[in-house]
Amino acid sequence: MIKHIVMWKLKDHAEGADRAANAARMKALLDGCIGLVPGLLKLEAVIAQPGLEATYDVMLYSEFTDKAALDEYQNHPDHVAMKPFFVAVRDARQCMDYEI
Q1: pTM over 0.85
Q2: In this structure, which long-range contacts are made by residues 70-78, counting pairs with CB atoms below 8 Å and at least 24 apart in sequence?
Q3: CATH of the domain at 58
Q4: What local confidence, expressed as pLDDT, does residue 53 receive?
Q5: How far apart are alpha carbons 85 and 3 in whole angstroms?
Q6: Contact 6, 13 (CB under 8 A)
């Protein structure tokens, strides 16, 4: 099993919207990836809660059966299509993939 975790810190304003609106759009786009490929076991997108200390704004936690399933997800047209928006609104990105 491969776990794929990504965190984004967003710009205050980008793509004509503020940080909160862009975070909500990112979450909606990520939620749309649930069940995108057969080897995707779990996908959870979350937005940092106001009032709690957080250094990133949006986080994705996902699990895949194997690296081939993760690769299929990464290259799926629906996933690729949302990347330009993510690049435009992010200030920083961290990713970690690990096998268990």
Answers
A1: yes
A2: 70/2, 70/4, 70/39, 70/97, 72/37, 72/38, 72/39, 73/4, 73/33, 73/36, 73/37, 73/39, 73/40, 76/33, 76/36, 76/37, 78/32, 78/33, 78/36
A3: 3.30.70.100
A4: 83
A5: 23
A6: no
Q: In the chain, which stretches have pLDDT less than 70?
A: none
What is the maximum alpha-carbon separation in the chain?
40
CB count, 10 Å around CB of 29? 17
Number of domains into which the chain is organized: 1
Q: Given the structure tokens 């205050």, which residue do they identify? A: 12
Give me the domain span that covers residue 92: 2-99
Instruction: Name the token pair of 90.
Output: 């992010």
| Cα distances (Å, whole numbers) of residue 20 to 10, 62, 80, 89 | 9, 22, 23, 11
